[in-house]
Amino acid sequence: MGTALDIPGPGKPLPEEAVEAYLDAFVVVSVQEDGENATVIAEAPGSDAVRLYDLTRREDGWWPDGYTEC
């Protein structure tokens, strides 16, 4: 099950900066960019929990669309 994010602008220069406010106890472990889309993978230290943040690049930077926690 995913969680949609409705973020006030502007976008951020880097994908990991765009999800920073939504990490909670999670830590970014990798960023995968593919043109206008990116996925930020974050893990919770001491746990098996992982979040996958989906992002879209727009004119003013990267915007998180939402995340899936597993």
Descriptive account of the structure:
With 70 residues, this protein is mainly beta. 7% of the residues lie in helices and 51% in strands. It contains 1 helix and 5 strands, in the order βαββββ. It has one helix at residues 15-19; strands at residues 2-4, 27-34, 37-43, 50-58, 61-69. It has a 5-stranded antiparallel β-sheet. Strand 4 (50-58) and strand 5 form a beta hairpin. The longest helix is centred in the first third of the chain and has 5 residues, at 15-19. The radius of gyration is 11 Å and the shape is globular. It starts with a strand and ends with a strand. The mean pLDDT is 92.
Question: What's the short story on this structure?
Answer:
This protein has 70 residues and is mainly β. The protein has one helix at residues 15-19, and strands spanning 2-4, 27-34, 37-43, 50-58, 61-69.
Summary keywords:
70 residues, five-stranded antiparallel beta sheet, 5 strands, globular, 1 helix, mainly beta
Radius of gyration: 11 Å
- What is the count of β-strands? 5
Looking at the structure, what is the overall shape?
A: globular
Task: Output the structural class.
Answer: mainly beta
Biggest sheet details: 5 strands, antiparallel
Number of helices: 1
**Helix/strand order, N-terminal first:** EHEEEE
| Beta-strand proportion | over 45%
Provide the residue-averaged pLDDT. 92
Poorly predicted ranges (pLDDT <50, ≥5 residues)? none
Query: Largest beta sheet: what is the strand line-up?
Result: 1-5-4-3-2
The end-to-end distance, rounded to whole angstroms, is 9 Å
**Helix-residue proportion:** under 10%
